[in-house]
Amino acid sequence: MSPLRRLLGYMARYRRSFLLGFVCIVLSTGIALAGPWVLKYAIDDLTAGVTMGKVRMYALGLFALTIVGAIFRFLMRRIIIGASRDIEFDLRHDFFTALQRLDLAYFQRNRTGDLMSRATSDLNAVRMMVGPAVMYTATTVLGFIVAVGLMLSIDGRLTLLTLVPLPFVSIIVRYFGSAIHRRFEAIQEQLSEISAQTQETLSAVRVIRAYGQEQYAIERFRLANEEYVRRNKGLIRLQGAYYPSMGLLMGFAAMLVLWLGSREVVAGRMTLGELVAFNAYLMLLSWPMIAFGWVTNLLQRGMASWKRMLEVMDAVPAVADRVLDDVDCGDGVVVGADLKVRPYSAIEFRNLTFAYGDHVVLRDVSAVFPAGTTTAIVGATGSGKSTLLGLLPRLHEPPRGTVFIDGVDVLDMPLETLRGAIGFVPQEPFLFSASIAENVAFGARGAQGDRDRVEEAAGLARLDKDLSDFPKGYDTLVGERGITLSGGQKQRTAIARALAIDPRILVMDDALSSVDTYTEEEILSRLAAVMRERTTILVSHRVSTVRGADQILVLDDGRIVERGTHDALVRHNGLYADLYRKQLLEEELEAS
Amino acid sequence: MTDNAAHAATHDEEVLGKAYDARLMRRLLTYLRPYRPQVALAVAAIIGHSILELAPPYLTKVVIDRYIPAGDLSGLGFIAVLFFVALTVSFALEYVQTWTMQMTGQRIMFDLRMQIYTHLQRLDLRFHDRHPVGRMMTRVTTDVDVLNELFTSGVVSVFGDLFTLVGIMAVLVWMDWRLALMAFSVLPLIVLITQWFRRNVRDSYRAVRTWLARINAFLQERITGNATVQLFRREERDRVAFDTINAGHRDANVQSIFYYAVFYPAVEVVGALAAALLLWIGGGWVIEDALTLGSLVAFLQYSQRFFRPISDMSEKFNVLQGAMASSERIFALLDTPVEIANSRTAARDDMARPAFGPVAQTTAGVIRFEHVTFAYVQGEPVLRDVSFEIQPGQRVAIVGATGSGKTTIVNLLLRFYDVQEGRITIDGADIRSMRLDELRGRFGLVLQDVHLSSGTLASNVRLGRESIDDAAVRRAVEAVRADLFIDRLPRGLDTRLAERGATLSVGQKQLVSFARALAFDRPVLILDEATSSVDTDTEMLIRDALTTLMRGRTTLAIAHRLSTIQDMDRILVMHKGHLRESGSHQELLAGRGIYHRLYELQFKARGTTALAPAAS
Lengths: 592, 616
Hints:
The structure holds two protein chains of two kinds. In chain A, 45% of the residues are buried. In chain A, strand 1 and strand 2 (359-369) form a beta hairpin. The longest helix of chain A has 54 residues, at 214-267. In chain A, 66% of the residues lie in helices and 10% in strands. Chain A has a six-stranded mixed β-sheet with strand order 6-7-8-3-9-10, with helices on both faces. In chain A, strands 2-1-4-5 form a four-stranded antiparallel β-sheet, with helices on one face. Chain A contains 21 helices and ten strands. Chain A has four domains: 1-155 and 297-317, ABC transporter type 1, transmembrane domain (ABC transporter transmembrane region fold), CATH 1.20.1560.10; 156-269; 326-421 and 503-591, P-loop containing nucleotide triphosphate hydrolases (Rossmann fold), CATH 3.40.50.300; 427-502, P-loop containing nucleotide triphosphate hydrolases (Rossmann fold). Chain B is an alpha/beta fold. Chain B folds into two domains: 4-9 and 19-334, ABC transporter transmembrane region fold (Up-down Bundle); 367-442 and 522-606, Rossmann fold, CATH 3.40.50. In chain B, the strands form two sheets. Chain B has a six-stranded mixed β-sheet with strand order 6-7-8-3-9-10, with helices on both faces. In chain B, strands 2-1-4-5 form a four-stranded antiparallel β-sheet, covered by helices on one side. Chain B is elongated and about 120 Å long. Chains A and B meet through helix 2, helix 3, helix 5, helix 7 and helix 8 of A and helix 1, helix 4, helix 5, helix 7 and helix 9 of B.
């Protein structure tokens, strides 16, 4: 379906409003144009000499017409612009829903700012197109046809003469509109340069001060700032000429009417009332002429924005549920139901090789995580630990036949079931600007969100002690991205959040890195009971965290290079043993 | 969770302040002061323009009353010429007005932006620690632009509107004061309608803005936190929450449509009421010959132009409101005092020198920390009673665990922060009494995470110092062997870097920052050694480069590599904010304290690896 057809589809939902709106437009335009006609009769009668009563009738008529016209004008705006707000609602809803389906990789490829601008300024441009642009197109076209018709009926030759400047108005609007748009973009570009400089110098503030570069930074900024003013100058030169020149052209038309029209009156080919009415119509025409160019710009921009929105709405998510037939796991048991019965979940990676584009991150990884056991993964930064964990809940899509839970390929599980089974604590916990209780209950369903369950989860993560220090306790707001909490508190909130959904699989990606060793031990001992009932995967840099695990996997450059228990690996005297000795040293320092 | 949007909306960015604040306005107007001639010209032009705008209805009156009855064709031609002249002059005046005022607006914005940016470059690090970069970017860009609108379309066009209004009233009274009174009689109605509109639109504008802020905050959060949303299967509930905000936004907008939908037709109705009154009464007078027909027509035409300035002025209201909020934020930033600046005595010593001048070549001097205590947060001291001395030419390493206060020592020495107790001296002079550029000009700083900017590689080495010419850059780059990778790049030193130098590896960025420190050739090298691991080849390069860099310089290094540490004359062992041990490698080993334990463990852990060859 073409973009236009799809947009019309959205508008069609409100076709009653648009229909009604058009009726109002026709009526209000017709009535507005009747006003000068009344004036024409009034002036002509006044020239001819007339009774007081008749003049008063004209006055009343003029007033009554305006009131009726105003009512329709009110309705027109309410109905059509109102409908555009309804369409905006639908579009925003659908855009958001489309975003929600998209996978992590999509969000990593596309900058937040870009997606935000599609959801805000592009959406607004589309709304301007379906609302104001539609309304003004209708009033403009209708107003133009009727007014010119009436003018022609008064004096054909004068109409043609005075209409000469009018097309120029539209041309000017079109020309200036696009020229202004181009310059405007050049200005925006320079504004980004100004922002970028501010960002760069503020991020590097220490280096700048240490090397005494403040003055240089200021000079560089001055140049960017001057360039910005220079580009604005070009825009101002255009804008300065734009509106006045429209006034000038419309003024020429009015001058022609007054000059040539009054000659016609003198010659007796036209009445004075007709001249006054003619003049009034010309005034009414000036707006459609200006609006015409403006509306075309709105339509152009709106369609461009709509296409940009469709790019997101039509993006195909790399991670999605398979068609339901696939979910059958062979023995006639549907996976979703099957998983609910099993208390534990065994995980297996089978010859897993995974790459982001050309960049291979995991090479031929095979490992079994028996149900109810704890497995720890260690390895240097960039060795592929986080990627491995992310494949389990399908944040990234693993190749078919490589990741299994209880023998079922994760690709065959509905995302709802799969993710519901996993309590995931990410490396950098993302908290939402809500209360702590709401953050802990973020994934909770039904009774899981009850306050006592939330408190239980928070207790396990040893968050309770911190919360008792906060005046508002669980209702403390954490601020944007949890800004008011310390790193350790954030991590522990994220642990509580994962525990609150009562998952059968617990995944902790370096989840205790910002917690001091003492607290860490306390959390681990509290978690011990929880972990016994669950399949747990821990990633950590700390030997103290991983030494108690049932098995330890050592990742190096995407491969599992060592595996075994703590004692076995220390005896093996490889990478793990090296890490262990280094950490002993650090602990020693801490303790001294 | 629906109310989390409400929390998000309380970001200070979105809160709209008072609609009008005389104190802020007065301060804003001071920015116009340097441009008094331009402003005067613009105001004169707009007044002239307003007066000329009055011409057409009056010319119509003259035509109807004088030339048409007389059939005077040359008179009509004369009027047409007058009309033409009025149009052209009016066009010219409007152009002049727009041009001067917009350009003045740009100059003011230029001044304001420079003022904000310069202030940001001077504000203490303590300030920057607390204020996110993104928010400061908004001050420099968006907030300033909002003010631009006030100056260009606000202040001056209000004059224009006012003059049009007064002009029309004057002409009407002059033509016929009785009929003028008739026309004015509807003015109270217009004022009432405008008041009603202004009050309601202001409220609904606020409501719309608040809802929009919630939508943006929600979207932003859901986009950045998309992985968490998916992991916790929040999609369904988020959709419901988003619909609630989305609907709130829609309803607030529909409410504001209502006010606009009422306002514009209502103004038309009042205009028609005036016209009807004029026709009713004035028409009677025309019949009685108490008024000319031309005057009536002119009156009718004027009455149509009468209401435009009034409704225009009410539209300026939103501009004003936005400007107040932005200027409040900008002034709050500008009013934040700079704590760490040149002391008054130092500043008086050389009034003639610019605040940030070229640095006179200095010597290292004796650096002394005397009982220094410091806390970033009140009550949580990071350094406690730290004293030590560094002789010129000495190489000193600081070691200790994370959070032991190593970086703070560097921060204080460069006066990024001021000590709270004790003092730091160089050659006996308190660093707080020195000029900042003199103090900082002694140090070449190499930081752990290297910040490169999006210029060329060469410009990242020389920064803004032009005395470091291409040859000097080349020498520095070669000395630290950065040429090995730079020469492999197609454009060599002229390669443009991506934002934050993203195209280079960590090790490469470090080499560039070494080259920078070498090119600046400062007597004291301050080194915050990077902990992040690099590949073995780069590791060797970095070690060699460090040797080059330290040659002949006083060095203070926060060191992580045993090789670096062992090369030092003296080692300071920091522990929980205290200076616990100090001495040479051998002395400390003999002392069998923290350092000894550290070394033993490191040595044992590393076995025979290359990093500990100097084991004696």
